UniProtKB/TrEMBL annotation:
Keyword Membrane on entry: yes
Pfam families in alphabetical order: EamA (PF00892)
Membrane topology of this protein: Multi-pass membrane protein
Name of the protein this chain belongs to: Permease of the drug/metabolite transporter (DMT) superfamily
Length: 312
């Protein structure tokens, strides 16, 4: 199996983890406030990664330097922005609009690649992004109310996640995976803890009746081990073998997996438009996987008069 194919399958597994744990997180934050939950979640993940680093990957510690630390902090900051502003936006806007605007990171990634990395997306990527964006709209947008300040906060969240994907692609091949992952996860833990102290009732995180309740404990263990430590290690390790745009398209499958999980675990029913949206997101991911030459040949056959446009 090609390295890029295995990388894409690994990242799809990450999207599956995130989508499958969405219901768990929703239940947990009804008992423990979001930033407090993230502080505990990312702290546990950082401890797990740190222990693994000290006992099994000691050689990586020799490569810890200022550049790696700054790169890890930057990745952690963008990741924190994504989580923090998504939570803040939910206070003012609907969950359906939040899901759609967050998913717009799939559009922002290729734009940021052009502006920051000077890399132009392929025709495959453009087709995939277009299909996935339409799919996200159909899957998540159950209301079409006017824009509000919450939507602006969620757009910042989408930019944070997009920047995290772009810069993970830039730094993942330059530094040891476990070390870089540990630094960025520790950064999110620290920033979430500060945010919790400033804006939430952080003392609830130290209340045994809250922290040891079944909903919170299960969510913390599953998300800290699978959805944080393992997921971001996989992303940091395998993104070097694929493009940032393909990663964004793969991660656009997260709401699809979340919808499927909600169907089986929470008895939620999908509308016909949501089902079409799921299909379009999947199609967008497939478009990005097609060999560029074959896809362009197909487009030329369908739109022969536009052939000159592709040569330009």
């Amino acid at each position: 199996m090609k390295a890029s194919t295995f990388a894409d399958l690994s990242l799809l597994f990450v999207a599956l983890i995130w989508g499958a744990t969405f219901v768990l997180v929703q239940n947990a934050i009804s008992f423990l406030e979001p930033q407090s939950f993230n502080a505990v979640r990312f702290t546990l993940a950082a401890i797990l990664l740190g222990l693994w680093l000290m006992f099994f990957e000691k050689d990586q510690l020799k490569k810890l330097d200022r550049k790696l630390i700054l790169s890890g902090i930057m990745l952690g900051f963008f990741l924190f922005i994504g989580y923090a502003f998504q939570t803040l936006g939910l206070l003012y806007t609907t969950s359906s609009k939040t899901g759609f605007i967050t998913g717009l990171s799939v559009v922002l990634v290729p734009l940021l690649m052009i502006g920051i990395l000077k890399q132009r997306p392929s025709i495959n990527s453009i087709a995939g992004v277009s299909a996935a964006t339409a799919g996200l709209y159909l899957l998540t947008m159950s209301d079409v109310s006017g824009l509000n300040i919450g939507d602006g906060f969620v757009l910042i969240c989408a930019a944070g996640f997009a920047l995290h994907i772009v810069f993970t692609g830039k730094y993942s091949s330059s530094y040891p995976t476990l070390l870089l992952t540990t630094v960025q996860i520790s950064t999110v833990a620290a920033l979430s803890a500060v945010s919790s102290v400033l804006f939430e009732d952080w003392k609830r995180a130290f209340n045994p009746e809250v922290i040891f309740s079944a909903n919170v404990m299960v969510a913390l263990l599953v998300t800290s081990i699978l959805a944080t430590a393992l997921a971001f290690f996989i992303q940091t390790n395998f993104q070097k073998h694929t493009t940032a745009t393909r990663v964004a398209l793969i991660f656009a499958m997260e709401p699809v997996f979340a919808a499927i999980t909600a169907y089986f675990w929470a008895n939620e029913r999908l509308t016909y438009s949501a089902l079409v949206g799921c299909a379009l997101i999947f199609a967008g991911m497939v478009f990005a996987e097609l060999p560029s030459g074959k896809f362009e040949s197909f487009i030329r056959k369908v739109f022969p008069k536009k052939e000159a446009d592709f040569k330009a």
